[in-house]
């Protein structure tokens, strides 16, 4: 019975991480880059998958063996660092959740013709409903699994309908005509940046799956999470490539919607609504759950009333979207900060991995450390460069 329970939690953690990554931005990002790079975008996806797996294995393994959440690990490395990271994660999570709520509203708009604001409120109600249930963790695990599988099936159908040039896609995945470093960084940041990096690891910790003995299960769950997100990315790429290879033009105001519509007509457009709604609602849940998991260490009341704090987080995101919309400046700043959060948090995790007071007698694999340091340096450089480029726009 325990094995079945663990399997459910491990799968739930994997899908929580994956569906947290697959939000409205993920759908748009994948379509736009396919439009720009065509079949060579396959190479970008391949490299980002390898980098994503390296990041997740480093983070999830250290969380498991230390039996601490990321902010507590950071405090053990340097007192006060945990609170600083928690503030960055929560602010970034809130900003992106405004976009997630908006995406859910758009999904309802496509499906039923209601306003995006009314759809956002309805989506928030669904998300809140999960955390009102006594065994919210189990319901959340099952919900993200069902929504994740639904997204995969619908996107596979659209990819088949668009008849992509598979041979060209496979060839350019390994022999690209163009390499876009910025696209790789964007994909890595969007898949394992900010709160997303810790969604699954914190879920496993909350469910009691921790310690050295659990490392094989933790590793499998981490790789599964990246695999699920990557499957969705690959088939969305193929769907968009099929449309672009035919010379059809995508609607610049909503590229992913036009891919679905051009591939499968009116039915495809409705399927886009379902995919957008599924992606957005699961991202709302993942963002709220993970963001709150970063602050509950600092106050016993937050820990005690965790579900209510999560609900308040969702309400706040929804109110901001309905009353103000998506504040562009806030989202620009949050995106730039997100690029800097990963090197800070991953760098902290790598230091912790070699401190016996944190991980005991656990020996972190050398290759994972080297891989992690490479990602830290790469993301720090690109994140700093992007932030400096955007600062003038923020204050103009």
TrEMBL record:
Q: Does the keyword Transmembrane helix apply?
A: yes
Q: Which InterPro entries does this chain map to? A: NRAMP_fam (IPR001046)
Domain of life per record: Bacteria
Could you give a GO molecular-function term held by this entry? Answer: cadmium ion transmembrane transporter activity
Gene Ontology cellular component annotations, sorted alphabetically:
plasma membrane
Tell where it localizes.
Membrane
For membrane topology, the record states: Multi-pass membrane protein
Record-linked Pfam families:
Nramp
**Transmembrane region(s):** 37-55, 76-98, 110-131, 143-161, 181-201, 222-244, 271-295, 307-324, 330-353, 365-388
Keyword Transmembrane helix part of the UniProt annotation? yes
Keywords (alphabetical) are: Membrane, Transmembrane, Transmembrane helix
Its BP terms in the Gene Ontology are: iron ion transmembrane transport
The protein depicted here goes by the name Mn2+ and Fe2+ transporters of the NRAMP family
Q: Origin organism of this chain?
A: Pontibacter arcticus
């Amino acid at each position: 019975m325990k094995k079945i329970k663990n399997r459910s939690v491990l799968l739930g953690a994997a899908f929580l991480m994956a569906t947290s990554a697959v939000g409205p931005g993920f759908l748009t990002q994948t379509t736009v880059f396919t439009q720009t790079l065509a079949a060579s975008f396959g190479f970008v996806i391949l490299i980002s998958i390898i980098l994503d797996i390296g990041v997740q294995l480093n983070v999830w393994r250290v969380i498991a063996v230390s039996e601490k959440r990321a902010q507590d690990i950071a405090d053990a490395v340097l007192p006060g660092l945990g609170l600083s990271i928690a503030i960055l994660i929560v602010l970034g999570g809130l900003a992106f959740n405004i976009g997630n709520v908006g995406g859910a509203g758009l999904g309802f708009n496509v499906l039923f013709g209601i306003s995006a604001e009314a759809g956002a409120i309805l989506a928030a109600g669904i998300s809140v409903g999960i955390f009102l249930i006594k065994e919210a963790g189990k319901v959340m695990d099952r919900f993200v699994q069902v929504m994740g599988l639904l997204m995969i099936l619908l996107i596979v159908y659209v990819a088949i309908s668009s008849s992509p040039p598979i041979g060209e896609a496979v060839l350019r995945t390994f022999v690209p005509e163009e390499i876009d470093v910025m696209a790789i960084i964007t994909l890595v940041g969007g898949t394992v940046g900010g709160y997303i990096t810790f969604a699954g690891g914190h879920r496993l910790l909350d469910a009691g799956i921790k310690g050295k003995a659990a490392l094989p299960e933790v590793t499998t769950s981490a790789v599964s999470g990246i695999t699920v997100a990557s499957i969705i990315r690959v088939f969305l790429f193929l769907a968009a490539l099929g449309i672009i290879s035919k010379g059809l033009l995508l609607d610049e105001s909503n590229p992913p919607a036009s891919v679905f519509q051009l591939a499968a007509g009116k039915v495809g457009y409705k399927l886009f609504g379902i995919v957008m709604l599924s992606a957005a609602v699961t991202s709302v849940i993942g963002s709220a759950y993970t963001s709150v998991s970063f602050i509950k260490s600092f106050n016993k009341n937050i820990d005690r009333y965790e579900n209510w704090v999560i609900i308040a987080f969702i309400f706040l995101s929804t109110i901001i979207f309905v009353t103000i919309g998506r504040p562009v400046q806030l989202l620009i700043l949050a995106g730039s900060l997100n690029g800097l959060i990963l090197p800070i948090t991953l760098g902290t995790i790598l230091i912790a991995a070699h401190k016996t007071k944190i991980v005991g007698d656990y020996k972190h694999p050398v290759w994972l450390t080297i891989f992690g340091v490479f990602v830290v340096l790469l993301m720090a450089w690109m994140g700093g460069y992007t932030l400096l480029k955007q600062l003038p726009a923020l204050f103009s």
